[in-house]
């Protein structure tokens, strides 16, 4: 049963097992290094963390990095979680660590899904973005292995200046690769990510509309990350199609859910309400530091000193992020703030204030429009 009250429990927990990675991605949030940090959470500390996660309504758990496969005990950690009944997925880097044996082990342990990143429809674009020649070919080979193992595959793509003009080709590739979910990330300038690499606010809106139209035609499901305002675009489209204005009734998050051609909502289940940084979402770093997300680098505590549940439920950072009425600027008065709320991590990266308005949203809320009209009439 998924948690309905994000004040108590998150919907998803991301654990950065290590920052070690053999790639040099241009956008890397973690600014990954080639070697593991000596103060990483140990296996025993990891088990205690998993116990705490399981006790918090058993949210979904994702192993990330760096590259999780740089930890020799990754499958021992995964087995401990799976044996407790936790649904675990993993996002390894496409490196020589991704062997057929590793993927077989993942399936034997019981990982629910394997996610790979593809940031371009060809080697030239993808390998440039990932900073490593051969990454595209290795990823394609690994996907073929997973198909042989009959293991569900998720493709992650970061939308940036590098691939904005190739999205139709990317969608075609995801379809050809027979993936269950395309998880589309919208760049947040943190870590190695640069604001100059981002697409414009107007281009965000254009991609959102394109994704909505695409979602009604393809076999795979589509999920966005750091693009909470995509929910608004979905709701606006649905209301236009039904002839209902957004102001005619209360806006509900379920209106933003999209089912793919399979009739399912992504295979692992979609959140019952909008997830945002610190609101249904929590990130644990390789050394145990706790953040609202990996893209919002404001530390709220450390699991070595304080249980994750206490940090998530009681930290001032987390509690403020779960109150959309505290948002500033147009986000604070927007009629979509309880289902959208904008990317809190992008607001922080651009303005230095995680409660400020989403800086890459073009929408003008009704309250702002009404106030302007009233002033114009004076």
TrEMBL record:
The protein's required cofactors: [4Fe-4S] cluster
Keywords, alphabetical: 4Fe-4S, Iron, Iron-sulfur, Metal-binding, S-adenosyl-L-methionine
UniProt key word 4Fe-4S: yes
Database matches in InterPro entries: Aldolase_TIM (IPR013785), Elp3/MiaA/NifB-like_rSAM (IPR006638), PqqE-like (IPR017200), Radical_SAM_PqqE_MftC-like (IPR050377), rSAM (IPR007197), rSAM_sf (IPR058240)
One Pfam family, short name: Radical_SAM
SMART domains xref list: Elp3 (SM00729)
Keyword NAD found: no
Domain annotation Radical SAM core: ranges: 7-217
Example GO molecular function: catalytic activity
Name of the molecule in the record: Radical SAM protein, BA_1875 family
Natural source organism: Evansella caseinilytica
